Fold these 4 entries.
Entry 1:
Amino acid sequence: FTNSVFGFIRLGVLLAATGRRSIQDALTGILKVPAAWAVAAAAIVLTSGMNVPLALMRSVTLLGDAALPMMILVLGMQLERAGSPDRPRVVAAAVTLSLVVAPLVAD
């Protein structure tokens, strides 16, 4: 499940970014998504078997609990300033993947 969600995050960012930028810029934009770095850090911790200090885990848990409300806030701010996309078909494909295909794959 985590791999499919992470894959859809990357694909959604790529498709959404290609609406205004080149494919190369969109691919480098994936590296700017914090979820990509979080998955890489989690993989390193899990494969190495190291223990994460309690203070760090508490901080990560606090940030994780705040993530969804902050995403909703930022989404609202972005929608308020949004204009019409240059390539609406690409944006429609990204929205369809996020809202229709991802839930179907999750089941």
Entry 2:
Amino acid sequence: LLKVPLDDPAAFSEVATDDPVHFDGIFLHEGAWLVGVNNTDGQQTLVAMSSADDWATATTEGRVLSMGDATSITQRGDTSYYINAYLGNPSAEEYEIISVNFSCLCE
């Protein structure tokens, strides 16, 4: 996980996390919580993280197992949505949009 200052992208830094994360899609929930699709050790989860030091470090606040091959994630209202891309099925013609409520984690 990297922090990239928009006014000086060359000054990026690695965010120290309490658990390893390998994010695919991420978004910033209400300007305070980082929510992302994570694939660590072959287990795919949706992760909510917070920071008390302007993202020098981040703490995992909650995890939810995904129901398949999650990729992109976004937010509308109190609900997050991710795309199940069926990556294990190259002949898939449709991709499922799945909702998950992080409001209980992001308070």
Entry 3:
Amino acid sequence: VNNILDLGAGKPYGIVTWLPASVVIDHNLVHATGTLATWPGGSTTSFSTFQTTTGYEADGRWGEPAFVASDDLRLTAGSPAIDLGMPLAGVNDDWNGDGPDAGVHER
């Protein structure tokens, strides 16, 4: 949860076997080209297909993260990662806005 996956031509999700219900894959910002995900019996290049087929990333988003620079991972205004995160007690208690931001820096 609360990650930014900006992989270029990488595949962010490679699910080899169905995961237990206790595993949470959600509130992430994803940006990649080509095959987005594979799972038992399927694959897709579409984020919405991944969401509806697997049930993962129900509150996730697809889009470019809009970092300040390639070596500065702070978010610029208008980044889709802003307020995307899920509150995690004791981890991101000090957030601004409507929710914590995805990624390492809070804007």
Entry 4:
Amino acid sequence: TPCSSHSRRRCVASSAPSSVAGNDPGTSTFGANCATCHASNGSGDTAVGKSIHIPDLRSPAVQSQPDAQLAEIITHGKGAMPPFGSSLSKDDIDALVKHIHGLAKTK
């Protein structure tokens, strides 16, 4: 494991800054599964996003939703959005929720 040469406490502490530095595991999952419709910045400014009028993920309406609600939408779908519960793990979905909340800082 990447932590084998460190004590567990040191490894956990040293892994926190990496997500701040841009190694967000939700980024690649978002790019592979969400960006086609939602755009890489979450704006929804894509041909598909515009055609089905999807919300800007950076908007207060989306950002104010609790993690559990966003996870539910990702898992089961909503409106034109398909469900991803059978193709993504719980960890992937949790990483996406964190990534979506991080998109507010990019607006």
